Every structure is written in structure tokens, then in C-alpha cells.
Amino acid sequence: MTTNTEEKTGEFRKEHYPLFRISRKILLASIGAFAIAQDEIEDFIDKLVDRGEIAEKDGKKLFQEVMERRKEHFQGREDEMRKRVESVLDHLNIPTKSEIEELTKKVAILSKKIDELKKAQVGVEKE
Questions:
Q1: What confidence tens digit (pLDDT) does each residue in 73-126 have?
Q2: Residue pLDDT, tens place only, 22-73
Q3: How far apart are CA 65 and CA 49, in angstroms?
Q4: Whose CA is closest to 85, among 41, 19, 31, 8?
Q5: 18 lies in the same domain as 58
Q6: CA 75 – CA 86 distance, rounded (Å)
Q7: Sign of the CA dihedral running 94, 97, 102, 105
Q8: In whole angstroms, what separates CA 17 from the centre of its chain?
Q9: Cα(97)–Cα(105) distance, rounded to whole angstroms?
Q10: Residue 52 DSSP label
Q11: How many domains does the chain have?
Q12: Same domain, 90 and 106
């Protein structure tokens, strides 16, 4: 027998699974594009070194500079992406991890109080 919460969770999964699937594909494509771009940059610099257009030492330095700039660029994008994802989750009315943890703590406190009240009621009934 399923509870109302389980039914809602099942509905949520069915309803929002395409969003998850699409988000996953976008993330994997981004990772793949990043890896390909890094390989292309490295190949390009290697060709410059092979042709004698730049020294090997300069090629290594150039590669490190490009990677550092990309890292800085993606860190800024990561913050932007995090804000967008949070906005989408908020729009879909999906609670955050911290909100769930806060509610879990409150439920635990309430359960403890209920148990204490039950024990007190049993003690009163015995009298």
C-alpha cells in the first residue's frame, strides 16, 4: 500500500524525469566538449612547436595560461549555472537539501514530543 507521499514522489519522478534526463545530457555534452577543446588546444600548440613557430618551453607556458584562463572562466560560469539551477528548482517547487534537513530535524523534535505526551498520558490514565 502506497502512502500519499509515495504517490506524490512517484508523480514527481514521472513528471520531472525528462527534465533530469535533458539536464544530464547537457552536462555530459559540456564535459565532453571541454575535454575535446582541451585536446584541440594541446594539439594546436604541439603543431606550433613542431613547426618551430614557438619553443617547447613557450608552448608549455602557453598551454598552462590557456588552461588557467579557461578555469577562471568556467568558475564564473559555474556560479551562474548554480544560480540558474537553483532558480529552476525553486520554480518547480523542489526543496533544497538544507530545507529537507531542516524539516527532518523538526519532524524528529515533534516525534520526540509526541512520544513524551503519549508516555505522560499513559501515566495519567494509570492513576
A1: 777 777 788 888 888 878 888 888 888 999 999 999 999 999 999 888 877 666
A2: 777 777 777 777 778 888 888 888 888 888 888 888 888 988 888 888 777 7
A3: 16
A4: 19
A5: yes
A6: 17
A7: positive
A8: 16
A9: 12
A10: T
A11: 2
A12: no
